[in-house]
Design a protein that fits this description.
The complex is a heterodimer of chains A (309) and B (448). The radius of gyration of chain A is 19 Å and the shape is globular. Chain A has two domains: 136 residues, 3-Layer(aba) Sandwich (Rossmann fold); 147 residues, 3-Layer(aba) Sandwich (Rossmann fold), CATH 3.40.50.1370. In chain A, helix 1 crosses helix 5. In chain A, helix 4 links the parallel strand 3 and strand 4. In chain A, the strands form two sheets. Chain A has a five-stranded parallel beta sheet, covered by helices on one side. Chain A has a four-stranded parallel beta sheet with strand order 2-1-3-4. Chain A is built from ten helices and nine strands. With 309 residues, chain A is of the alpha/beta class. The two termini of chain A are 22 Å apart. Chain B has 15 helices and 18 strands. In chain B, strands 1, 2, 3, 4, 5, 16, 17 and 18 form an eight-stranded mixed beta sheet that branches. In chain B, strands 6-7-8-9-10-13-14-15 form an eight-stranded parallel beta sheet. In chain B, strand 2 and strand 3 form a beta hairpin. The chains are: A alpha/beta (309), B alpha/beta (448). At the A-B interface, helix 4 of A face helix 6 of B.
C-alpha cells in the first residue's frame, strides 16, 4: 500500500508508490477535464481554504479550479487586503480559518517550513503550495506527471535542472521527486546560485552547460531580475551568454520544461519556448488534474480508481 | 525593602557526598559543614556532628561540586522583561547549579553608559538570586560607530565589554577599543561574525541548509573574524575573549592565536557541544541560534578543544525568548536557546556518559569562567565563602516536564530525558536553590 498521509508538506511525505498513485489518479481527473461538464461530486459539502501569502497566478488559480471541479466550497485568502496586513500572526490566521472547519488548507508562504507549522495548528489537511525556498511539492508532481506521459517511465532518464537553484523551491522538490522516480538529476548554474553541498540531495552539480547534450530533459528555472541587484551574477548579459537555453542547445530527442512564469529572452530564448520540444503548456494543463488528485487522495483517498468516474 | 530570604547565610551540613573540585584537588567522599555561609569544615563521612541550628542534607550517593559560573547569559533587563528578568534568570541559574552569572548588555536600552549600569546593579542587589556580573557595550548603542565611555563603565562595575548579539564589524573600531583597554582594563568579549558572509542566514551553511532552502551562515563567517581579531589583539597586546565558538575553523584560529598570546580565551556553549545542524531538519525554532548548530565534525572539534583546555570554559549563552517570538516560521523566529537549567545535565549526559569528556574536566570547564573575568573562583575548602552545588548524577529528568524556572521555554533540549539533577545550590554563602523532591529517595527518580 502506498503511503499518502494526511498532509502534503514535502515530497518526502511520499514514497514512489504514493507518487504513482497520485499520478494515476490525476490521469483519471485529466479525463474529467476533457468532458463538457468538468465536475465530479467528490468533495461536495467540504471546504478548501487557499491561503496565499505570496503572489501566485498558476498555483492559486489551479488549486482553486481543482477544488471547484471536485465540488468543494472554496475560500481564497490573500495576505493583501486581509487581517495579515494588520499584523495578524500566521498562527492566529490559521486558527481563525480553522474555525470554518475546512477539510484542507492550501498554503503558499515566503517562509521555509510555514506549511508544516500550519499542520500543527489545524485539524485540516495541509497542502504546501510553496514555502519559501524549501519546497513546492505539487509543482514537482505535475512535472513528473507531464514527463511520465511523455516518456512512459522516468527510470534512468537524465534530467538537467538549469539556472538559479539556490533560490528555487521548485528545484528542491523536483530533485527529490525525480530521484524517487528513478531519474538521474544534474543541477547546473552559476556557482553563486548553486547551494553548497546540494549534492547531498542525490544530484550532480555542474557550473556550466557542458555535457547538456547527455540530458533527456532540460528543466529551466526562472532567473529573477533581483538576483542581478544582489550581485549573484555580474550581468544579465553574461548570464544569457553562458546559461540561456536556446533551440541550438536541444536536439530532437530532448524535452524542455519550465515552471513559469518565463523570462522570455533571459533563461530561455523565444525559439526554445516556442519549439515543439517545450512542454511548458502541458505542465500548466497538468496542474489542475494533479492538484485535483492531491486533494482527492488526501481528503477521500479511496484506493478504487473507478470511484471518481 | 528587606533582604530576600535566600540571602541568609547558610547553616548547613551535607553528609557523605562525593566532593569533586578539580582545582582544589578533591575527589573523595566528605562531610562538609557550612557555617555563616562559609565552609567551616571538611572531614571524613560521619565525623562531623550536626550543630543544633544546622540543616542536614544527606549527600550519600550524590556529588558536590563547586557551583558553576556562566560567563554568558541574557537576563533581558532592562526592556525585555517579557522574556526574562534578573529575578527569573538568576533563579534559573540557581536551579542549574550556577553560583554566578555574567549578563550581556544587549538590552533595551543597551548597557552603554554608567547610569544604566548602576541602575541595573541596584536591581540585581534587590532581585538576583545568585551574584551577577555585568558586561557593558563596546560601542554606543552597539552600533559599531563610537566607543562607549569604557573607563567610567569600568568604575561603575563593568567586568568587561561586548557588543554581543552582533560583531564589531570595523577592525578600526575594535583596534581603538583594544588601545583604550590599556586605560581601563576589562575583558573585550567578542561575538565573531562577518555579516558580509552571514547576513540573512538562518542556520549553518551545508547539506542541511541546501536541503531546506534556508540561507546559510558559513563557518568562515565566524573563523575569519576570530583570526582577524586575534591578530589585532596580539598587535595591541590586548585581552580578548571569544564567545560561543561553533566551528572547527574557529578552533584552529584560536589555537594559532593562543600560540602567540596568553591574553586570549574562549568559551563554547552546551548546544554546540551536543547538537548538530541535523536537528534543524524538522525546522523546530528552538534549534535556531546564532552562531548556528554546525556539523558533527565541528561538534567533535569543539569537544576536543574543551577537553584539552584550548577552549577555556563552558558558557550557556542563555537566550530566553517568549513563545510568540518562536512560534513562527523558522526564518522569522528569534535566535537563541535557554540553557541555564540544562547545561550541566546536557553535557553530563551527552559528553561524560557518552565517553567524550571526563566528569572532572566538565566541572572544571563549567567553573573556569570566573577567573577569566576576575570573579571569585568557587573553591571547596575551609574558610571559603560557600559556592557549591549538590547533584544526583543517577537521576533522570525530562527537560520541561515540570515547566521551567526561566520565564521562557525556548530550550533546545526540551522533552529530552537527561541524567544529572541539581538538588541544591549554595551561592555566595546562601542556599539559593533546593529541588522540590530533594527529600525523595534517589530510587524514585533514578533511571533504571
Amino acid at each position: 500500500m502506498s503511503g499518502i498521509g494526511r498532509h502534503l508538506l514535502s515530497i518526502e511525505d511520499l514514497d514512489r508508490a504514493g507518487i504513482e498513485r497520485i499520478l494515476d489518479r490525476a490521469e483519471s481527473f485529466a479525463e474529467v477535464s476533457g468532458r463538457e461538464i468538468k465536475k465530479v461530486p467528490a468533495l461536495r459539502g467540504r471546504t478548501v481554504v487557499n491561503l496565499f501569502y505570496e503572489a501566485s497566478t498558476r498555483t492559486s488559480s489551479s488549486f482553486e479550479l481543482a477544488a471547484k471541479r471536485l465540488s468543494a466550497d472554496v475560500v481564497s485568502v490573500r495576505s493583501i487586503g486581509s487581517s495579515v496586513e494588520k499584523g495578524e500572526s500566521l498562527k492566529d490566521t490559521v486558527q481563525t480559518l480553522s474555525a470554518y472547519d475546512p477539510a484542507a488548507i492550501v498554503i503558499r508562504s515566503p517562509h521555509v517550513g510555514a506549511a508544516a507549522l500550519v499542520a500543527g495548528w489545524t485539524a485540516a489537511s495541509v497542502i504546501n503550495a510553496g514555502d519559501g525556498k524549501h519546497e513546492h511539492p505539487t509543482q514537482a508532481l505535475l512535472d513528473v506527471f507531464t514527463l511520465r506521459r511523455r516518456l512512459g517511465s522516468l527510470e534512468g532518464a537524465s534530467i538537467w535542472i538549469v539556472g538559479d537553484v539556490l533560490h528555487s523551491r521548485v528545484a528542491r522538490s523536483n530533485i527529490l521527486a525525480l530521484r524517487r522516480m528513478g531519474a538521474r538529476v544534474t543541477v547546473c548554474g552559476p556557482p553563486t546560485l548553486l547551494p553548497r553541498e546540494i549534492e547531498a540531495l542525490g544530484c550532480e552539480a555542474k557550473p556550466s552547460l557542458e555535457g547538456l547534450s547527455q540530458a533527456d530533459v532540460v528543466y529551466v528555472l526562472r532567473m529573477q531580475q533581483e538576483r542581478m541587484r544582489e550581485a549573484f551574477v555580474p550581468s544579465l548579459r553574461e548570464y544569457v551568454q553562458r546559461y540561456q537555453i536556446t533551440s541550438t542547445h536541444l536536439d530532437a530527442r530532448q524535452l524542455l520544461m519550465h515552471p513559469g512564469p518565463v523570462n522570455r529572452g533571459v533563461e530561455l530564448s523565444a525559439d526554445a519556448i516556442d519549439s515543439p520540444r517545450a512542454l511548458i503548456s502541458d505542465q500548466v494543463k497538468a496542474g489542475v488534474a494533479v492538484r485535483m488528485a492531491v486533494l482527492y487522495e488526501l481528503l477521500v483517498g479511496s484506493p478504487v480508481l473507478e470511484a471518481v468516474a | 525593602m528587606g533582604a530576600p530570604l535566600f540571602c541568609r547565610p547558610a547553616e548547613l551540613l551535607i553528609r557523605g557526598a562525593h566532593v569533586l573540585d578539580p582545582r582544589a584537588g578533591i575527589d573523595t567522599r566528605q562531610d562538609i559543614l557550612i557555617r555563616g555561609g562559609h565552609i567551616a569544615e571538611l572531614a571524613v563521612p560521619g565525623s562531623i556532628a550536626a550543630p543544633d541550628d544546622c540543616d542536614v542534607v544527606d549527600g550519600t550517593g550524590k556529588h558536590l561540586f563547586p557551583a558553576f559560573v556562566d560567563p554568558h547569559v541574557h537576563l533581558r533587563t532592562p526592556g525585555q522583561e517579557h522574556k526574562e528578568t534578573i529575578a527569573t534568570g538568576t533563579a534559573a541559574a540557581a536551579a542549574g547549579g550556577f553560583g554566578a552569572v555574567i549578563a550581556m548588555p544587549n538590552t533595551s536600552p543597551p548597557v552603554d553608559n554608567a547610569s544604566v549600569l548602576r541602575a541595573l546593579a541596584q536591581t540585581a542587589d534587590r532581585e538576583a538570586r545568585v551574584p551577577v556580573g555585568f558586561l557593558a557595550a563596546i560601542t554606543r548603542g552597539q552600533n559599531g560607530q563610537e566607543l562607549t565611555e569604557m573607563a567610567e563603565l569600568r568604575e561603575a562595575g563593568a567586568l568587561g565589554f561586548t557588543d554581543d548579539g552582533r560583531p564589531v564589524v570595523s577592525a578600526g573600531m575594535l583596534r581603538k577599543a583594544l588601545q583604550y583597554q590599556r586605560v581601563c582594563g576589562g575583558v573585550l568579549t567578542l561575538h565573531e561574525e562577518d555579516p558580509a558572509l552571514s547576513a540573512g542566514g538562518a542556520m549553518h551553511e551545508g547539506a542541511v541548509s541546501a536541503r531546506l532552502g534556508l540561507a546559510g551562515i558559513p563557518s568562515v563567517s565566524e573563523s575569519t573574524m576570530v583570526a582577524r581579531d586575534a591578530a589585532l589583539a596580539i598587535y595591541e597586546r590586548g585581552r580578548v575573549h571569544f564567545q560561543h565558538l561553533s566551528c572547527r575553523e574557529s578552533v584552529a584560529a584560536l589555537a594559532a592565536a593562543k600560540e602567540q598570546s596568553a591574553l586570549v580565551s574562549a568559551e563554547v556553549s552546551p548546544h554546540h557541544l551536543t547538537l548538530t545542524d541535523e536537528s534543524v531538519r524538522a525546522l523546530e525554532s528552538s534549534f535556531k541560534m546564532n552562531p548556528p548548530l554546525r556539523t558533527e565534525a565541528d561538534r567533535t572539534a569543539l569537544v576536543q578543544a574543551l577537553r584539552s583546555g584550548l577552549i577555556d570554559c563552558v558558557a550557556t549563552d542563555h537566550a530566553p525568548h517568549a513563545t510568540h517570538e518562536k512560534e513562527v516560521p523558522f526564518e522569522q523566529a528569534a535566535m537563541g536557546t535557554t540553557g541555564l537549567e540544562t547545561a550541566f545535565a546536557a553535557l553530563f549526559t551527552k559528553l561524560v556518559l557518552g565517553g567524550e569528556l571526563e566528569l572532572s574536566a566538565l566541572v572544571e570547564r563549567m567553573t573556569a569562567g570566573a577567573s577569566l573575568f576576575d570573579l571569585p573562583q568557587p573553591t571547596i575548602g575551609p574558610g571559603q565563602l560557600a559556592s557549591v552545588c549538590l547533584v544526583d548524577l543517577r537521576a533522570g529528568w525530562e527537560v520541561g516536564g515540570r515547566g521551567y524556572v526561566s520565564r521562557s521555554e525556548n530550550c533546545c533540549f526540551h522533552g529530552q530525558t537527561l541524567r544529572g539533577r541539581v538538588l541544591l545550590t549554595v551561592a555566595a554563602g546562601a542556599v539559593v536553590f533546593r529541588a522540590v523532591s530533594a527529600a525523595l529517595p534517589a530510587a524514585l527518580t533514578a533511571v533504571k
